Structure formats: C-alpha cells, structure tokens
Amino acid sequence: MDYSQQLRAATTHILLSYYGQMPGKHVPLKTQNQTLRKLIKPYLTNADYRAVRNELKNIDVLAKRGKTALIALEELSRTPQHTASNDVEVFGYLIKELEAVLCISITPVTSFDDRSPVR
Predict the structure, then answer these.
(1) Please, are residues 24 and 104 in contact by the beta-carbon 8 Å criterion?
(2) pLDDT tier at 47 (50, 70, 90 boundaries)?
(3) Quick check: 32 and 56 in contact, CB under 8 A?
(4) Alpha helix (H) ranges present in the chain?
(5) Diameter of the chain measured on Cα atoms
(6) Closest CA to 64 of 32, 26, 10, 11
(7) Which key words are in the record (predicted)?
(8) How many CB atoms lie within 10 A of CB 73?
(9) 1-41 per-position pLDDT tens digit
(10) Pick from 115, 107, 99: nearest CA to 11
(11) What is the rounded end-to-end Cα distance, in angstroms, of the chain?
C-alpha cells in the first residue's frame, strides 16, 4: 500500500470514526467540497488533499452511512456554541490521529486562524 492509499484509508477511517455517532442528513456535494476545502485543506499538501477529497467522493459515504465528518461539521457550524476553537480542537484531533496512523509528521500549510474564507 503506497503513501497516498494509506492517507486516503486513514483519513476516511478517522473521519467516519470520529463522527460516527452523530446524526446525519444529506449535504449537497458543493457544500461538502466547500467544508472540506475550508477545514481540512490547510493541513495537507495539495496532492494529499485531492486524495482525501477523492476518497470521500469515491466511497459515497452519504449514501452508505448517512453520516460523515462533513455533515457533522455542517451541524456543528449551525450550533449556537460554535466557535473557531471547536474547529481547532476537531482538526487538531484529526491531524494527531493521521500522524499516529501513518507514522508521519504533518505541518499545517497555513495557520488555522489566518486562512481566507472559502468562496
């Protein structure tokens, strides 16, 4: 199994595991991609990000499980207690788990708080 296959498998597993207990609903593909781009991309190289995005698309998680990290993040963003620190905590966890599973070190491409908004 090469690096990109490991990354895709690990990321998909972690996203599903972390949010597996949260209720889900259908989120349009455009919204999924915007959420993914805004919250995950800063932590991955462009190639790794594309691999993760494609893996989530390929397995069609929305149809198979009815719940995904992307849905959970959409729900999180609608809650009154939502703050930027929620995102930092969630993706701090994601990065820590990815590093552990893949035995690598991931350095954020940009600072979490300094990103420009998704357009």
Answers:
(1) no
(2) confident
(3) yes
(4) 3-19, 29-39, 46-58, 61-65, 69-78, 84-102
(5) 42
(6) 26
(7) Plasmid
(8) 26
(9) 555 555 555 565 555 554 443 444 444 455 555 665 666 66
(10) 99
(11) 35
